[in-house]
Design brief:
- This protein is mainly alpha-helical and about 350 residues long.
- It contains seven helices and two strands, in the order ααααββααα.
- Strands 1-2 form a two-stranded antiparallel ribbon.
- Helix 2 crosses helix 4.
- About 0% of the residues are buried.
């Protein structure tokens, strides 16, 4: 009972001493919002101060002002609240920073943030340039691979096939790869010479820079900014030249394709021309023979026409005899043939007799 009476008495005293009883609920809500806003500002200031301390003194690992709050009973809490009201003002005077110190810390943090942003921007630009170079190299490599694939398809897969056995000729494949290897070795040698030349130029530039530093002609930030601007302009020009070079390479590839197609057409037309030339020669020989035969036929035709003319003349001059005369002529012819046969028989007998006489002499 005594404890309950003491607790009730203390609660009545707290209600009487609590200053919040003088305010309404809306005013208390406004005060709570103001306190929350003030706490956020103080929290941001504390985080900035901790970052500043960590940068100044790296041994600092956390907020130096974090004070643990032990668990207490409600009665002890009320007693500590009353005591803190009397001591709070004295502690705040020793822990709070002045406005000038806060501005100094904020200014230094802003400078650090600017430096970090500049470093991040520079690193990002370097990474972007590196990625752009990698992409350009990949594009060039892809175009070279595409060109090599097309040339291999044109020269080996289609151009080196033996039509008789329908297989690729091994000698042409070997010669193709040997040519590619020689071209690659030549390119490596050119790049090696270019690399050595660039190393010599780099060494000369380092020596010039060292001489300028020794003579006191060190470049300032403005000069570096000017050099960055010029470098960006030259990079843009190099990018444009690379684009032009890539476009010219594509044009060269297309021109090479058109040239190869025209070469194939020229080869086909050359073969056709040779065939037509041989055919024209054979036709000319045949035409000469036909002309000779034509001349011979013309001569024979002239002779035949002459004979025909004479026969026609004889036919025109021919006179048909009378019937009696014809019969008489026919009878005379018969008698003459009979006489001729008789005389031929007599001649044969005389020859036999003459031959016999000569033999028996």
């Amino acid at each position: 009972m005594a404890d309950s009476e003491s607790i009730a008495a203390s609660s009545q005293m707290d209600n009487q001493d609590d200053p919040l009883n003088e305010y309404s609920s809306e005013e208390i809500d406004g005060m709570v919002k103001e306190l929350l806003t003030g706490n956020e500002v103080i929290e941001n200031e504390t985080l900035m101060f901790v970052k500043y301390l960590k940068r100044v003194d790296p041994n600092v690992t956390g907020a130096p002002f974090a004070v643990p709050v032990p668990s207490q009973s409600s009665h002890d809490t009320r007693v500590m609240r009353k005591r803190s009201r009397s001591k709070g003002s004295g502690v705040d005077k020793h822990l709070k920073l002045t406005a000038e110190q806060k501005c100094d810390i904020a200014q230094r943090e802003i400078e650090e943030l600017r430096e970090d942003i500049a470093k991040l921007k520079e690193d990002s630009e370097k990474k972007m340039d590196s990625f752009k170079a990698i992409i350009e190299e990949a594009d060039l490599r892809f175009s070279e691979l595409k060109k090599s694939s097309y040339e291999f398809e044109r020269d080996i897969v289609k151009g080196s096939v033996n039509t008789r056995i329908n297989r690729v000729i091994a000698e042409k494949v070997t010669r193709y790869f040997e040519d590619k290897q020689r071209a690659r070795d030549t390119l490596i040698e050119k790049l090696r010479l270019k690399n050595s030349t660039l190393k010599v130029q780099k060494k000369k530039l380092h020596l010039q820079l060292k001489q300028k530093e020794e003579m006191g002609e060190v470049l300032h930030e403005v000069d570096f900014q000017q050099l960055k601007i010029e470098n960006s302009q030259y990079l843009e020009k190099i990018d444009e030249r690379n684009q032009d070079l890539l476009r010219l390479k594509l044009m060269s590839g297309n021109t090479q394709q058109v040239l190869n197609s025209y070469k194939k057409k020229l080869q086909t037309l050359t073969l056709e021309s040779d065939r037509l030339h041989s055919e024209i020669t054979s036709r000319n020989d045949l035409l000469g023979k036909i002309d000779t035969e034509t001349e011979t036929v013309e001569a024979e035709r002239a002779k035949a026409e002459e004979v025909n003319r004479k026969l026609r003349q004889q036919l025109d001059d021919f006179r048909v005899p009378e019937v009696v005369e014809y019969v008489q002529e026919k009878a005379d012819l018969y008698e003459m043939n009979k006489t001729v046969k008789s005389w031929e028989r007599k001649v044969e007998i005389a020859e036999v007799f003459h031959f016999w006489n000569l033999k028996h002499r």
